[in-house]
Design goal:
With 151 residues, the protein is α/β, with parallel strands linked by helices. 37% of the residues lie in helices and 23% in strands.
């Protein structure tokens, strides 16, 4: 069976494929960037999210409130005007997703949006433009966003 040209696997080590794909997706997004991320601390990605917002892209970010590392990122995004919310995880659980929807492209996998996740650890992410996957995640994100209080 031939490979689906709308999907491919990218990795962190060796190389910086996931970082490069995230950066390219953030630069090229024109309509939306919706992300749910367990840990988001990478300064380059924080700047790119703010830049996309300043270009008029619908940027929304959900973070795990149990990760103290996210506090600085949450405050920085909010001060840049980026809509960001804490996902209301039940006690003892995590928002462990690492996924971004960039217009009609998904990038999801094991890599946290941190220096370690993007430059050090062996991580694997899947990049796809599969319409069913994009629609399914778009619906899920909308539900998750709606259940996350604006604080």
């Amino acid at each position: 069976m031939p490979a689906d040209p709308s999907s491919r696997v990218v990795q962190t080590a060796p190389g910086e494929e996931i970082r490069q794909r995230l950066a390219a997706a953030l630069r090229s997004a024109r309509v939306r960037v919706w992300a749910e991320v367990y840990t988001l601390t990478d300064p380059d990605l924080l700047l790119a999210l703010a830049s996309a917002h300043q270009r008029g892209v619908d940027v929304k970010v959900l973070l795990d409130p149990g990760q103290p590392y996210n506090r600085h990122s949450f405050d920085g995004l909010r001060s840049a005007g980026v809509p960001v919310r804490w996902y209301p995880v039940p006690p003892g659980t995590l928002l462990h997703a690492k996924i971004g929807l960039f217009d009609s492209q998904l990038l999801l996998g094991s890599a946290n949006w941190t220096y370690s996740g993007l430059d050090v650890n062996h991580e694997l992410d899947l990049e796809t433009q599969d319409p069913q996957a994009v629609a399914a995640y778009g619906s899920r994100f909308s539900l998750d966003w709606a259940r996350s209080p604006a604080s």
